[in-house]
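To whoever picks this up:

The parser on our side crashed when reading a file containing two proteins. I've narrowed it down to the boundary between the first structure block and the second sequence. Both blocks are reproduced below exactly, byte for byte. First block:
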Amino acid sequence: MKTYIIDLDGTMYSGDKNIDGAIEFINYLQGKNIPYIFLTNNATRTKKQAKEHMLNLGFKNIKDEDFFTSAIAAAKYAAKNFSERNCFVIGEAGLIEALKEEGFHIVDKNADFVFVGLDRKADYRKYSNAIHNILSGAKFIATNTDRLLPNNGNFDVGNGSTVAMLEYATQIESVKIGKPYSKILDILLDEYKLRKEDIILIGDNLETDIKLGYDSKIKTIMVATGVHSKEDIDRLKVYPTNFIHNLKELIK
């Protein structure tokens, strides 16, 4: 049986609004005992916060362990590949929790790493302190490089803009973890003991969700409820295996 790897922002919900068909699709998977994992580039929420957000939107039987985020992947990547544990963080609760679970210590200076996730309270001073640490030799790790974040039918600036700013300022390229980069997929497959042929990726974003699957030769389903439309496929030259307008189309 295939495991569905499902995006959140733009696929399940937009901000604090449900996306039509999402609850019905998850109810269908649960009723048929079809396995699924929510794979999100959004590094702001902890697993518990992500669960509560979906429950508040009307989803049922959602568990902490259903979620795998770019924050979790970034922390696991660094913990596996490096022995140092001091880090400077631009990010919110989800990234901080993930790092602490892997034994990292949050510091302001003399950091071994600078982790950059979406941080809606970050300011000029915090960005400058990140630059100081990167220029002093800290490894620069980006949870994700999303251009836009769907929010209640509109779009907010994504973490990719912050990453691009810091790369421009330091002239140092970050290690990129989240979709469409293969690191997040490799870590997820290892964590859940899955193979590429065991999964189907579902998402709304051609530049992240679908490109990850396209580049990795994994089956993908694009749903036109978020960032991109069908017209964007040829423009971006990223081709999903299947295209749907609503997740209800997958209910059999």
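<<boundary where parser fails>>
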Amino acid sequence: MTDVVAEQIAALRDEDWAIRGEAADLLGTFKDPRAVVPLVSLLRDEDRSVREAAIEALRAIGAPAVETVGTCLAEADLSVQESASAILTTIADERVLAPLIKALLSGDWIVRMHAAKALGRVRSADSVESLIPLLQDKVKAVREEAAAALAAVGDAAIPSLLKALQHEDWLVRLHAVESLGKAKSKQAVESLLSVLFNDQDSAVREDAIRALGEIGDPQAVEYLCTAMREPGLRTLAVEALGRIGDPRAAPVLIDVLSGAGPPPAMRTVAGCGDQWNEEVMTQGAAARALGLIGDEMAIPSLLAALHQTFTRAEAAAALAKFGAKVIPFLLPMLNEPRDENLLFHVRETLASAGWRTGRSRTGTH
């Protein structure tokens, strides 16, 4: 009986690069562990397409390839290290924890980036101490993967991330904030609130608001309402309140949507300009947030916002989230003075809410 796997393994040594590449592709579909070592040897192939085929095949084989691929992280050839670390981003497990941690110290930023991402897959508490320094890596992609990996580790990384909020380098604080948001740990809320009101860097404060929205703890609502008074944080705070979804925020967001009480800086600006545009953006964000919260007290204000061109689309999308409850309010608008754009959004919202042409309010034909 023909052993097709053995045949394709032999073809990996063919002089023709196309045959080697095709053999690697087939071995990836067979997923036979016998192909792992021969495929790893192709990571040194002179042809790029063959190397890429070997990478994909090893990814497809998965768990049986992990340890052998892991040994390649110690290779002298940096291109082999890069390929191995790239493979491990999708198949790594605890067996390669040690070589991945060591790879975080590589002089090659691509290896550091992939190693961090792979450790995010492994999610071991043992990697936290080595990942934290990468939050100040000179390469942004490395910093971002380290932050994502720490978030993936979860609770075990929280103490180190909280400590990083005090770091003198604003980039470290920034990525620590991002990690805490992605980890969605309520342990971080008080520290993030402190960052929001005390950090000296505006980008860090802005990310603190985003993180609070991601975590979704209602205890942040009151503080976010306070942060809304600061023009640069106003839109972000509105968006975070929508993500948290606490009905206590609804009255405040209704005021924003209706244009009541914008920050003093908005009122004193001469003319329209960027400040006006920023508040328009905030009103749109308020409409979206009210749709996420889903409190029916917002329906009248959202209906009013349909008449403003700059909040119309957001208000329509928010109203659609209330379903059939908004149909009786929208139907009369079909008979109002002809504004084709308004009528379009009304019809779209009615359709999204479940109403069909030819049906009455009670749903009969």
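After patching the parser it read the second block fine. The mean pLDDT is 93. DSSP finds 23 helices and no strands in the chain.
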